[in-house]
Amino acid sequence: MFKAAADPHIWAGHPARDRYKRDVFEAYFASLLATKKALAVVDIACGDIVGTSSYYTPPDLPNSIAIGFTFLVRAKWGGEANRELKQLMLAHAFRAYDSVYFHIAPTNIRSQTAILKLGAVHLYDAELKIAAAPALARCYGLTRAHWQTLPG
To answer: What share of residues in the chain are helix, strand, coil (percent, to 5)?
Structure first.
């Protein structure tokens, strides 16, 4: 997993800009593994791990589910990888939940743009403790009903 995360450009628009460093990434990845809700993203054509994503419980909506902590190698940016990953995760989440949430740092424009392309809508901004410390997050949501009307 670290091989995929070791590119500083992946983290340039992210609040944790130093996550490409092994010690920083290992602490982050250990916390993801501890949740038992993290997924590895594997390129089935070559077998390489190309990223990760995770389900988590939103701190302000404890009976809900969110998707986040996602990163992909730059070779997968702008293509179908993120859409396919999120489509699979959404299909699974919508088996049990009517809505799925996403929390994105205000500076992470790339992720905000990607989530809007999936059909999510901006709901509100809030200071939430999603990771180690409370931070401002742009909160997006997608309902099952809306998701089912989207093409693809």
So the answer is: 35, 30, 35
